[in-house]
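Subject — a protein and its fold
Encoding — discrete vocabulary of local shapes:
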Amino acid sequence: MGPATVVGTATLGATCGPWLRAVIRRYVAAADGSGRRGRLGPSAGSVEAGTAAVFAALAIRVDSAPLLAALCWFALAGVALAAVDVAEGRLPDALTGTAGGGLLVGLVVVAVVRDQEHALYRALLAALGLFAGYLALALVSPASLGFGDCKLAAGLGAALGWFSWPVVFAGTLVAFGLAGGFGLCLVALGRVGRRDPIPFGPFMLLGALVAVLVG
């Protein structure tokens, strides 16, 4: 995409920030000094800046407006999912379903408009494959991965699979590599124990973004 499209897409992402912050607040709860439960969200400007940066990066990488729209929709929900997972250690079904469902509709439209049914079939196979792989890992080690991670994996598999199988593998490997490195750093600093879980959703999303941009 051209510079004007990149700037416009980034501006759109920043504009969505206040609405996205409200969505995040629905799922992020914290106790105040009186012990009552209140609704909190990310620090001021972080959602807007993060969404704008992701939108801009996707606009630089993607050369199709319909595909860019589908990926930005998934990224919008992804920012909310990452924020909730960091704060609460969970990936709400409503957000993973909205992300994956919107992405699937967008990919179907792109496949029809641009005659790319082969890419759509690969995306669907990648979604099923990544979901099955994460589900197997979650059954083996439920303390490390949850069912929310599996459902997010399905959406990420579709997004990565649209590009190629190497992008699917790269996104998965980068996610585990980033999570492993981050976990080791926390253990070395004494912030967590070796068996303490860390939110994996943000690393899944970041790994997928890296794979799409580089791949």
In short: The two ends are 16 Å apart (CA to CA). The longest helix spans residues 65-88. The first strand starts at residue 29 and ends at 31.
